[in-house]
Amino acid sequence: MGTVNCLQRQGVSRIYLHLDVDVIDAALAPANEFAPEGGLSPKDIIDIIAAVAEQFTVAAATVASYDPTWDHKDCILQAATQFLITVASTRSLEPN
């Protein structure tokens, strides 16, 4: 969490959260043609979002790098939707 501490020392209190969904392990479901195996799980990403939101106000967020032609079972779509719901739910939280 060295980066978090550095940002806080610089007075950062609000962040822009950008998530490329091709960081999700392609073995679970590929987000696009570039998605590698060995990436993060959707739970890992939700945990990261929650940890970031504990320290900073999420001022804006995006989800990118999604190609639905690769997401045959809508797994990435469902995960991305959950990520955005998680971000939206943090809007009621005050960072520490």
TrEMBL record:
SUPFAM superfamilies per record: Arginase/deacetylase
InterPro entries given in the database record: Ureohydrolase (IPR006035), Ureohydrolase_dom_sf (IPR023696)
GO MF annotation terms: hydrolase activity, acting on carbon-nitrogen (but not peptide) bonds, in linear amidines; metal ion binding
Top-rank taxon, per record: Bacteria
Gene3D superfamilies reported in the protein's UniProt record: Ureohydrolase domain (3.40.800.10)
PROSITE patterns attached to this UniProt entry: ARGINASE_2
Pfam families: Arginase
Family: Belongs to the arginase family.
Protein name: Arginase family protein
Species of the source: Microvirga tunisiensis
Organism classification: Bacteria, Pseudomonadati, Pseudomonadota, Alphaproteobacteria, Hyphomicrobiales
